[in-house]
Design goal:
Blueprint lengths: L2 H18 L4 H8 L4 H9 L7 E6 L2 H17 L4 E6 L2 H7 L7 E4 L5 H11 L3 E5 L5 H9 L4 E6 L13 H7 L4 E4 L2 H9 L5 E3 L4 H10 L5 H7 L4 E7 L1 H13 L4 E6 L4 H10 L3 E3 H4 L11 E3 L6 H4 L5 E4 L12 H4 L5 E3 L7 H8 L3 E3 L3 H13 L1 H16 L4 H11 L6
Helix pairs in contact: 3-6, 4-10, 4-20, 6-7
Length: 419
């Protein structure tokens, strides 16, 4: 791709978001969050103390959770550094705009030469953490020109991506803007080496460290315990409509169990649609404020953000959403760390952890509602097989922790930060 085509893409993307914002709340947030961004950021930073700054960029909430263990280790070891986190997606920004581990949380302005220069000049970061993917040419190019070290955290690459195609010169240039690339899999390391990149390190996925930290600090959720009340429990996390249509018959007919559904989309419209699909349901916001705690309800619908990763601790079985549509499979490790057998849809080929969990006997893929019901029934009724899958899940996470420490070792060895 040439720079001309890239600029055309940026113009078309922005125009498309403006049009969609007329009727889509998320697109509207995307636009509103970037209005007068330079003036707002300059005002926010005006009271900035004369301390060095670390900038971490995340596409959305999942990438934030991936970068978080590295950032928190940096903060613990280098407390004098200030932190700014940028998001591209409203779902990430809205969920973590009040994150106490950062001094500032902002939207990343749309990529352009002018925006990148202004943004980087205002921040003057000592170090940049770029989490997993979403590569913006002008930002990375500006950081390279200013000789600011940029680290790619938990990168994952495939041969079909433009970096490795004949037309991908501009994309390859972006990769060469990184001081070092920390990668999840050996196949990705080999791809990057094949185009001449040398500062590439196989460190694994930092999400293993993040979910392990969550499991090591469990939080007591009395409202959830009151809902379960001794029943076998399925937690369905980050579900989309396609997932929910596969789940509804099972939830409505297997009345001995209870079900906790945490949909990815918690707009009022979607919550109403979900309530029509699953019977005997109540929203979490209503349940926790109900002094009677009526146990006639079988389905608890989680209508907030931030609770899901803690819910898996109460699950006998987990269903992870995203595998029936095009939106992408959500985080299976959040359930695996608690030793919970996992069921997913058929679209998981781009998710190495899902592939490996299936190979380990900790996860199961289903393609139809009939397969879903059969798999759920077998796991709920066969205690031995369920425990076997649970142990495999927990063991898989334990064996793959440590990526964050490897990245920290690099930062220290290369003196990218100073106390």
């Amino acid at each position: 791709m040439s720079i001309l085509l890239y600029n055309i893409f940026l113009l078309l993307y922005t125009a498309g978001v403006r049009f969609v914002a007329l009727f889509n709340p998320k697109a509207r947030l995307w636009m509103q969050g970037r209005q007068n961004w330079a003036d707002k950021l300059e005002q926010q930073l005006s009271a900035r103390q004369k301390r060095p700054l670390i900038w971490m960029h995340c596409a959305s909430l999942g990438e934030f959770e991936q970068g978080r263990p590295v950032l928190e280790q940096i903060k613990a070891q280098y407390p004098d550094y200030q932190v700014l986190i940028s998001f591209f997606s409203p779902s990430g920004y809205e969920a973590r705009k009040n994150y106490t581990g950062a001094d500032w949380v902002v939207y990343l302005p749309m990529d352009s030469a002018k925006n990148a220069k202004r943004f980087v000049t205002l921040l003057q970061p000592a170090l940049v953490l770029w989490i997993r993917y979403e590569f913006w040419y002008y930002y990375l190019n500006e950081l390279q020109k200013k000789k600011i070290p940029v680290l790619l955290v938990s990168g994952l690459f495939r041969p079909a991506q433009p970096f490795f195609r004949w037309y991908g010169a501009l994309y390859r240039h972006m990769l060469f803007c990184f001081r070092a690339l920390f990668i999840q899999q050996q196949s990705s390391v080999d791809l990057l080496n094949s185009i001449g990149l040398k500062e590439v390190y196989l460190t694994g996925d930092t999400r293993f460290d993040r979910v392990s930290a969550t499991a090591a600090n469990p939080i007591h959720l009395p409202d959830i315990e009151a809902f379960i009340k001794g029943r076998k429990t399925l937690v369905a996390g980050s579900t989309w409509l396609e997932d929910e249509k596969e789940l509804d018959h099972y939830c409505n007919t297997r009345t001995a169990n209870c079900y906790i559904i945490a949909p990815h989309e918690i707009s009022e419209e979607h919550l109403v649609d979900l309530e029509k699909l699953v019977k005997n349901s109540i929203r979490y916001s209503r349940w926790k404020n109900d002094p009677q705690k009526d146990h006639a309800f079988q389905v608890l619908i989680i209508d907030n953000i931030g609770l899901l990763s803690r819910l898996y601790a109460y699950a006998d079985l987990a269903y992870i959403g995203g595998g029936f549509g095009d939106d992408g499979l959500h985080n299976t490790l959040e359930a695996a760390v608690f030793g919970v057998p996992i069921v997913i849809g058929p679209n998981y080929e781009d998710y190495p952890e899902a592939i490996e969990l299936i190979e380990q006997g900790a996860a199961f893929s289903i393609a139809t509602a009939l397969e879903l019901e059969k798999t759920f029934d077998e796991l709920f009724s066969n205690e031995i097989e369920r425990k076997k899958a649970a142990e495999a899940a927990k063991r898989y996470v334990k064996n793959n922790t440590g990526a964050s420490k490897k990245i920290m070792d690099y930062i220290e060895a290369n003196r990218l930060l100073t106390n």
